[in-house]
Amino acid sequence: MTASRFTDGPVVVGIDGSATARAAARWAARDAALHRSEIEMIASANLSADEPHVLDPLRDRFERALAEARRVVEDSTDTPDPLKITTQVVDSPPIAALLDASDRARLVVVGNRGHMAGHRVVLGSVTIALAEYCRCPLTVVRDTAAHWSQANVVVGTDGSPGGRRAVSAAFAAAALRSVPVTVVHAWCDADMSVPCTVSDWPTHRSRADAWLDDELAEVRRRYPQVTIRCAVTRDRPARALLDHAQAAQLLVVGACGRGGFAGMRLGSTSLSVLRSARCPVMVVPHDR
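^ Universal stress protein, sequence as received from the core. Prediction below:
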């Protein structure tokens, strides 16, 4: 993946008629307006039956869902030039359809759970699969997400390639929205060869502050207009990110940080924040 590969692609939104899908369409509309990109909404009917009395009601249901999502998109933006919106009902399963679309998309946006998931389900199976295998950045939106103002963008970094890609994506998002970035670097005993006691923490904190300052030097040069707030904390990464993202408009994470083992595609920190964050979460994929 190069830095510019997805710059001009569409925003692809998964639609299934659920409240979270409508929230995803609303978020995608505002993001597309900022980027001046097209919106492509895909509904997967997964049509495997041959009988018209089964196929026709299914297709009608998803056409209605797309029409409703289109109205949401049109009502969510106030730009001189209307967004270009395309909609399609596809026959393939939703995971396959959206993964195929991620090859050409700038961004894929979905709700955290689909139409068939119960209220106790935090993440649907489609969302988890996309977070693991999506080939472009993925944003997961809850139906309760309402942050779109001057709230900040939060990103976590651990010095891994995935962390650096997340930082780059977060700064790009913040620059476009003219908001600050909070960069979170969390230390915990599990990450250290020697446990860090309370009395040791000031020394570790000073070293971590210096390391983070060096780590952000290049992205500071690229985005001089972005205000940066650094948060070095002695805590578990997921808990630190969730704490700092309570009032954020977007939380950005890499698919897998330095704690992952070879072949791991979605790290435990990324999965934890996807399950618990109240704001939209962007997962930046592995480099390829």
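Residues 1-6, 117-121, 260-264 have pLDDT under 50 and may be disordered.
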